[in-house]
Automatic annotation (TrEMBL):
Residues 1-22 form the signal peptide. The keyword Protein biosynthesis does not apply. This is Tetratricopeptide repeat protein. It comes from the Bacteria.
Amino acid sequence: MKMKFFSCALLLLFICSCGSSTEDPAFLNDISGRYLFNADEELEIYIENDSWFMKWRGATKIKPLKVGDGVYFVKEMNEKIQFRKNPTDNKYYICLVPKTDDSQMAYDFMKLEKDEFTASYYLKNGQFNKALEAYKSIKSNDSLSPIIEEAHLNRMGYRVMNNEKNMVHAISIFKLNAALHPESDNVYDSLGEALLRNGDTLESITNYKKSLEIDSGNRRAQQIVEKYGN
């Protein structure tokens, strides 16, 4: 019985030591900030009461469990992570600990600068040129990324226009889609519709005509141009 009690006490001591909230202040200062989780999604590391927490996908206070020297288990990700500085760019990264011994550690999620944001952040906050540049960068790195898919952006534009009733933001989304997919007749059709609903008839007709140049069989565009184009 004494041996069993002693074993349980040791196990409890181990768990408490691994989950200890005491961290080096310099380490906390280095790791705090926003990290690029994917091409258009962030996670944030913040400090509270000399310990660090994570904000990610709606969860505002994720507390990873320390399971080793500089190694933490994030239950919400089902991953072990480490913080490392990449010697090639001298930036901090969150690194996923490989699940097999023969795999190399990769620099997965880069820490962002204070003035560096995601493409969707720039778009939502009315910084169209920066948003366009950021989305073009995503397209250049991964032309198949769902983030820059025409249909995805088109649905986003209609959701903002119909549900959120934010015409200015919706028009920005449709303009972005047209800039990313200039070969599509539908991007100009959607932009034309948003502009027309916002009262900009002249610019609307210009975009409907662009749609017709690509697809002359767009009957809806033809009808609107005939109605408002003169």
